[in-house]
Specification:
By secondary structure, the protein is mainly beta. The chain contains no helices and 9 strands. It has a 5-stranded antiparallel β-sheet with strand order 5-9-8-7-6, with no helix packed on it. The chain has a 4-stranded antiparallel β-sheet with strand order 1-2-3-4, with no helix packed on it.
Length: 123
């Protein structure tokens, strides 16, 4: 993959917000790179950089908390960590969720669905 300026594209293929304060990366078994992007400009997202170098919004994109949503409809608040498992799931760690200030871990599945898998306190 070449190093340079990357532009993230949304699901419609339109240019979306660029990287702003990427905090963590992980690589899945297929060579895709996932980047936790927690910028101050509202880029509360996970960006996927494919093995071929194509960037796309994997999940999130706006600050907030929305559980059981698909891809860009999910809301993250300051994603600070990502990791991938052997099944293709991507786990996202956030130090807080905006609705009540709790730490949580969210999972994005291969089908694009996002759900909370661990959280301190009640939802």
């Amino acid at each position: 993959m070449a190093v340079g300026t990357l532009t993230v594209h949304d699901e419609a293929g339109d240019a979306a917000q660029p990287f702003d304060r990427p905090t963590a990366i992980c690589v899945d078994q297929w060579g895709n790179v996932f980047v936790a992007n927690c910028g101050a400009d509202g880029n509360h997202s996970v960006v996927k950089v494919s093995f071929s170098g194509t960037c796309s919004l994997h999940a999130g994109g706006k600050q907030g908390y929305r559980n059981h949503a698909q891809g860009h409809l999910a809301r993250f608040d300051t994603p600070m960590g990502v990791c991938c498992d052997a099944r293709g799931n991507v786990f996202v760690r956030m130090p807080r969720a905006t609705d009540c200030g709790n730490h949580c871990i969210r999972k994005t599945s291969l089908d694009g669905s996002v759900c909370t898998v661990a959280r301190r306190g009640a939802e």
